[in-house]
Amino acid sequence: MHTTAQERLVRPARNLNGSLRLPGDKSISHRYGMLAAFAEGTSRFSNFSTGADCASTLACMEALGAKVNRTGEGIIEVTGVAGRVTPSSQALDCGNSGSTMRMISGLLAPQEGSFTLIGDESLSRRPMERIRKPLEAMGARLTLTEGHAPLTILGGPLKAIDYTTPVPSAQVKTCVLLAGLQTEGTTTVREALRTRDHSELALRAFGAKLTRTLDSISISGPQVLRAIDAVVPGDISSAAFFLCAAALFPGSSLVLDSLGLNPTRASLLDVLTALGAQISVLNLEEKNAELVGTVRVSSPAEGLGSTEVSGALAAQLIDELPVLAAIAPYSSGGIRIRDAKELRIKESDRIALTVKNLRAMGAEVTEFEDGLDVPGGQTLHGATIDSGSDHRIAMAFSVAALRAEGETLIQGADSAAISFPEFFDLLDLIAER
C-alpha cells in the first residue's frame, strides 16, 4: 500500500477501564453485504463494519449492479440483483481484501460473462490457487497470474462437486458454497478442522437451505436468496485487542457490549481464561443465528500465567495470534504458538514481523517456521514498530506499548483502517494514563 507513512505515538497506561461498543463484525459484514447484493429485495443493516475491506466488497457488488445506500451512522441499505449480476467493463477492485476476492469468485463463476478481479500490492501477493482448484473441478474457467491476482473468471453453468479442502479455510468453503448455491444438484464441502461458519448462518438467514454434518456442509442449487434486516454484532477480532489490553493490567475492568460470540470465533475467551483473565458473558442471545452477548473482562491481581496455542485452536485464532504474542512477555510463564504457518501468507509475514517488533522492544523470543515461543516475566521498552502496513500488527503492538517503559512509535498506523478505523481513538478512551 502506497500511503504517506502515518505514524502514531502510543504512551504507556496505568490501567484500562470503561465500556465500548465495537463496529460491526468484518466477517459477517462481508457476507451480509455480498448476499444482500445478490438477493431479491432491499436489505437493511445497522452497525455494518466501518473497515475498508468491507467497503471493497460493497464497491465490487455495486459495480455488478447492486445498489448501496448509506442512510446514516453505520446504517446501509442494499438492493440486490435477484441472482443475476451485470458484468462490469472495469476490473473489480478488491483493495486489500482477500475475503472479497476469494468469496466473490464463487459467486461469479456460475454467472454469464467475463469478470476480472484485481487488488492492491499486498493482495496481489496472496495465494489464490486454493480457490481455483475447487472452482475448476466444478467446470469454471479461471486465469491467475502465477497463482495470484489479477484473476479472470469466464463464467457459465457449473456442476455440483464433493470437495475436501486441503487447508481449512472459511473463505474457500464460502467460495464453493456460493458457487453451489447457483448450481444444479448438491455441492458438499468437507473440512478436517471446522472453520468459522458465518457463511452457513448468513445463507440460512437469507433463506437458503443447507445440511451440516460433523465434518461437512452441503448446499443444493439453484436457490433464491431474499433480503433481510439485521444488526451486525460487534467484531470479536477487533475486540481481541481490547480484551488482551485489559488482561495486561491487574485491577482493570472492561465491558464490551453486543459482541459477536459465534463459537467458531470465540476461542480467544478460552485462551484468555487459561491465562488467568476473569471473563464473564452477560445477556447472551441469538440474532439471525449468530450469538451476541456482553463480555466483561478483568485481570487477576497476580497477573497472567502461561498457555500454548496449537492444533485446531491455532487455526481458529489465526487473526488473534499476533496480539497474544504481543502480550506474552508480560505474562508470568509466556505463550507458545505452533501450527500457525498460515500467518506467513497473510497481509504480511506475521510471524517474522511479530518477532522483529518484539525484539525491537527488548523481548526475548524464539522463531519457528510455524510459530514462536515468547517467554514470560519480561520488561519491554518503547521502540519504533514496523507494522509492514499490516493492520493487525499495528494494533497488536499498540497493545504491547501500553505496558512498555517509554513511548512507542507505530509506523504505518494508518493500516488499522483496513479493518478498524476507530481503533486508536477507542484505545485512548479506555486507557488511564
What are the key terms here?
UDP-n-acetylglucosamine1-carboxyvinyl-transferase, Chain; alpha/beta; 5-stranded mixed β-sheet; 2 domains; 4-stranded mixed β-sheet; disordered N terminus
Give the beta-strand count: 24
- Please write the CATH class name of the largest domain: Alpha Beta
What is the name of the CATH topology of the largest domain?
A: UDP-n-acetylglucosamine1-carboxyvinyl-transferase, Chain
Query: What is the rounded Rg?
Result: 21 Å
Tell me what the CATH architecture of the largest domain is: Alpha-beta prism
Largest sheet: 5 strands, mixed
- Mean pLDDT rating: 94
Structural class: alpha/beta
What is the topology, as strand order, of the major beta sheet?
A: 16-17-15-2-24
Number of structurally distinct domains: 2
Identify the overall geometry: globular
CATH superfamily of the largest domain: Enolpyruvate transferase domain
Helix content class: 25-40%
| Beta-strand share of residues | 25-35%
Question: Helix segment count?
Answer: 13
Which runs of at least 5 residues are low in confidence (pLDDT < 50)? Answer: 1-5
Distance between the termini: 33 Å
